[in-house]
Amino acid sequence: MEELIISLHMHTTYSDGTGSHKDIADAALKAGLDAVIVTDHNVLVNGPEGYHRNGKKRMLMLIGEEIHDQARIPQKNHLLIFNTHRELAGFAQDPQNLVDNVRQEGGLSFIAHLYDPECLPIKEVDISWIDWQVQGYTGIELWNSLSEIKIQGKTILHILFYIFFPQYLNHQPPVEHLTKWDELLNSGKRIVAVGGADAHALHVHAGPLHRTVYPYEFHFRGITTHIQTPTQLSGDLEPDKKMIYAALSAGHCFVGYELPGSTRGFNFTAQGRETSALMGDEISSKGGVTLNVKLPQMAECRLIKDGKLFKTWENRETCSYNTTEPGVYRIEVYRQFLGFRRGWIFSNPIYIR
Questions:
Q1: Which candidate, 92, 212, 325, 338, has a CA 20 to 30 Å from the CA of 68?
Q2: CA-based radius of gyration for the chain
Q3: Looking at residue 29, what is its pLDDT?
Q4: Predicted pLDDT of residue 206
């Protein structure tokens, strides 16, 4: 299998971002991404989808959408939507109807920043997802780079610190996200986790001070989603687009945080008596299963089974575990960065049935 690095969840001047699609493409090429998925609020922008190039480098830009009910105050229930071919924002009032229409279009839907609390120092309201009775969505945004500032920014001094020293901001996915994901997985649902930039490249002005709060390129070098595909990108839009969305739909992916070190090369697989499995796959427990983990560098590796810590390996690059027990198995990896223990890699599960 091949590995592609993508960034998803970002905004342009078509909604509340400050840059153009070209600005995003230029930043993505500099960051070495294979693809981006642009998701402006409540507008499906036609035209920018396709390949962008800089010399020998190329990067695929795909266009999705972030939809929420604009009439609802305060805002709730933001949904990332990929691979649809018509505007669906008109269905935002009823999240289940929206998800159903996405599925009818052959699209994918991911609940965005599911825990996004109010932040009084910057007068931001709580925009968490609350309608958990909804069924049929593809997955969740396990880690949102931008909304973490609302979680970490307890005072205006904290906010200013993270604005000027953004490398200190991201720590790990919120505990609320991990807990909810495990709850959904344990209920029998197959829920794909992705990492989102939520990039806006916001311009902040305070008297003579002007600053771009998290330029696009900064986000693109931070929290990413790595997908496993049968081949590398061909340069042909339609088959490449289909391949990327197929990998996301299947959960053949993991969330990586690139600032502590490149997460390229991580892998989590299972080998059974007759078959093997990738992240997102099911495999039979009959005859026993060996779970194999490969890390890009030595780190703390945790095996999570059915939402609970099952085994920990310290300072390892490869890990393996033999089991005959059915369950939902996923991997979390942590390492030190700038004096703090950071989440580094979060795999999608392998389902042993």
A1: 212
A2: 20
A3: 97
A4: 65
Six-digit token pair at 164? Answer: 């000027």
Specify the CATH class of 267-338+348-352 in words: mainly beta
Q: What are 351's strand-pairing partners?
A: 282, 328
Q: How far apart are the first and last CA of the chain?
A: 23
- The one-letter amino acid code at 6 reads I
Strand partners, 229: 2
Which residues does the chain have with pLDDT short of 70?
206
Q: CA nearest 266: which of 341, 310, 318?
A: 318
Angle at 307 between CA 302 and CA 309, to 5 degrees: 35
CATH superfamily entry for domain 2-257: Metal-dependent hydrolases (3.20.20.140)
Q: What is the residue whose two structure tokens read 């703390």? A: 300
Alpha helices of 190-337 — where are they, by DSSP H?
Answer: 216-220, 237-250
Question: Where would I find the H helices in 139-225?
Answer: 148-152, 156-164, 175-186, 216-220
Contact 332, 171 (CB under 8 A): no
Q: Which residue in this structure is represented by tokens 């996004």? A: 116
Q: Which among 95, 94, 100, 93 is positioned nearest to 112, based on CA atoms?
A: 95
pLDDT digit string, tens, across residues 67-123? 999 888 888 999 999 999 999 999 999 999 999 999 999 999 999 999 998 888 888
Residue 330 · residue 347 · CB < 8 Å: yes
The neighbouring-strand residues paired with 350 are 329
Distance of alpha carbon 37 from alpha carbon 44, whole angstroms? 12
Beta-bridged to residue 216, according to DSSP, are none
Single-letter residue type at 118: E
**pTM given for the model:** 0.95
User: Any idea where the domains of the chain sit in the sequence?
Assistant: 2-257, 267-338+348-352
Q: Report the pLDDT value the prediction gives residue 74, as an integer from 0 to 100.
A: 81
